[in-house]
């Protein structure tokens, strides 16, 4: 990981909220840039706008553009992790944001320590996604595809297809699917999944795990592929065919 403070882009139209957040984040070692609109945020993310940001904290209630639309534009422009801040507590909205490429979300009103934990989690995960990170390679450096019925998972290229059609997954969705797929039928405890995919033991990540499981089922259009083992965790049920 590069030395020095992590640059964070705070996209928030309320100046009072932004000032309080900026002070708190700066106190915890972040270098904060404040954008008051979706357009300001997109301009700040242009390649010639200085050193890259480590995290984007995106409030969805923006004055000039729909926050979901801004999230989609950010993801097309950069791989920088995006954490959505939303007042919408329904799962459908959260899945929609994840499908657009958001890495995580917090629901208002939120605890500042919860927010910090999520920012640190996506920062650590992004830093871990360098070319040398990932599943262990075979001695010759070759990873055979994981084939689970109609589902094919290419570990080196991080691509997933169903019946030959590529399915676009976020970083965490891919990591979650790859973890379960490497041991079909084995039950992974929630704590284990959170530790390996989110690289944290923070209990509040459990809600995020549930949303990502729902998003995977929706994107793959195979709701029975990932089975919930109540009180324990999840397992991948290898489909036939």
From TrEMBL:
Where in this protein does the record say 4-aspartylphosphate is found?
59
The alphabetized UniProt keywords are: DNA-binding, Phosphoprotein, Transcription, Transcription regulation
Comp. bias regions, Basic and acidic residues: 127-136
Looking at the record, the residues that make up the Response regulatory domain are 7-123
A Pfam family matched in the record: Trans_reg_C
Q: Which residues form the OmpR/PhoB-type domain?
A: 143-238
The organism's place on the tree of life at top rank:
Bacteria
Where is the segment annotated Disordered? 126-145
UniProt keyword Repressor present: no
The UniProt entry, under SUPFAM superfamilies, shows: CheY-like
PANTHER family per the UniProt record, alphabetical: REGULATOR OF RPOS (PTHR48111), SENSORY TRANSDUCTION PROTEIN REGX3 (PTHR48111:SF72)
What name appears for this protein in its UniProt entry? Sensory transduction protein RegX3
Q: What is the lineage of its organism?
A: Bacteria, Bacillati, Actinomycetota, Actinomycetes, Kitasatosporales
């Amino acid at each position: 990981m590069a030395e020095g403070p992590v640059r964070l882009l705070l996209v928030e139209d309320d100046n009072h909220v932004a000032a309080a957040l900026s002070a708190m984040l700066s106190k915890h070692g972040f270098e904060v840039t404040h954008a008051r609109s979706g357009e300001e945020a997109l301009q700040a993310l242009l390649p010639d706008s200085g050193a890259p940001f480590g995290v984007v904290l995106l409030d969805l209630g923006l004055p000039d553009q729909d926050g979901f639309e801004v999230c989609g534009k950010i993801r097309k422009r950069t791989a920088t992790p995006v954490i959505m801040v939303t007042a919408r507590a329904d799962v459908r909205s959260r899945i929609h944001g994840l499908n657009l490429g958001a890495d995580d979300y917090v629901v208002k009103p939120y605890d500042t320590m919860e927010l910090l934990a999520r920012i640190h989690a996506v920062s650590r995960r992004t830093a871990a996604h360098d070319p040398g990170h990932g599943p262990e390679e075979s001695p010759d450096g070759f990873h055979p595809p994981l084939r689970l019925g109609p589902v094919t998972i290419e570990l080196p290229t991080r691509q997933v297809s169903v019946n030959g059609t590529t399915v676009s997954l976020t970083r965490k969705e891919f990591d979650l699917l790859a973890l379960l797929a490497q041991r079909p039928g084995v039950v992974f405890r929630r704590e284990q999944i959170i530790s390996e995919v989110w690289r944290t033991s923070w209990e509040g990540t459990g809600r995020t795990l549930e949303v990502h499981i729902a998003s995977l089922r929706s994107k793959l259009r195979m709701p029975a592929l990932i089975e919930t083992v109540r009180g324990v965790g999840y397992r991948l049920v290898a489909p036939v065919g």
